[in-house]
């Protein structure tokens, strides 16, 4: 049975690095292909998104404090793909290449927002005493924006079915990644200013 290319994205955000299953950081994905989707079809996803759901990408933005001193903090901000939670019905998809491109772009959007978060942190002014609170607030804002963007992406592309909109989004995402390439490095040091 072939499934229509109704695809979806599930976004989850993590404040702490503790993960129960392995993740792949965006920078480490050398080839985004169906082989990295290790999860089984999730009945909960199917119930929420419909029986024609062909694939689900689960990704997240996370941050953790690597080091903190009286004057600065080194933090790591990553976009992550969750292989054991991401699943596909491949090869039983009508347009597997188109579907895969759509799912890859979900991951790219996650990286765009990880870079936006790095930019906010890099250019922000933080106090040593309230750093965790301040960065936590920024994180929640970025996660909210990212979720809205992912939803808009699926709606406008009709989960990859609208090929003209998909191409428009592909171009837009590529431009965003390029515009934010200065913030591609996951580790950054923040010097406290107050």
Helical percentage = 40-55%
Q: Number of helical runs?
A: 4
- The total beta strand count reads 6
The best one-word shape is elongated
Total tally of structural domains = 1
Q: SS-based structural class?
A: alpha+beta
Biggest beta-sheet profile? 6 strands, mixed
The Rg value, from CA coordinates, equals 18 Å
Detailed description of the structure:
This protein has 194 residues and is an alpha+beta fold. It has helices spanning 43-49, 96-123, 131-157, 163-179; strands at residues 6-11, 24-25, 53-68, 72-81, 87-88, 187-191. It has one domain (6-182). Strands 1, 2, 3, 4, 5 and 6 form a six-stranded mixed sheet that branches. Residues 1-9 and 11-19 have low confidence and may be disordered.
Labels describing this entry:
4 helices; 41% helix; 194 residues; disordered N terminus
Q: What's the topology here?
A:
Elements: E1 6-11, E2 24-25, H1 43-49, E3 53-68, E4 72-81, E5 87-88, H2 96-123, H3 131-157, H4 163-179, E6 187-191
Parallel strand pairs: 1-3
Antiparallel strand pairs: 2-4, 3-4, 3-5, 4-6
Helix pairs in contact: 2-3, 2-4
Explain briefly what this protein structure is.
The chain has helices at residues 43-49, 96-123, 131-157, 163-179; strands at residues 6-11, 24-25, 53-68, 72-81, 87-88, 187-191. The chain has 194 residues and is of the alpha+beta class. Helix 2 (96-123) runs antiparallel to helix 3 and helix 2 runs parallel beside helix 4 (163-179).
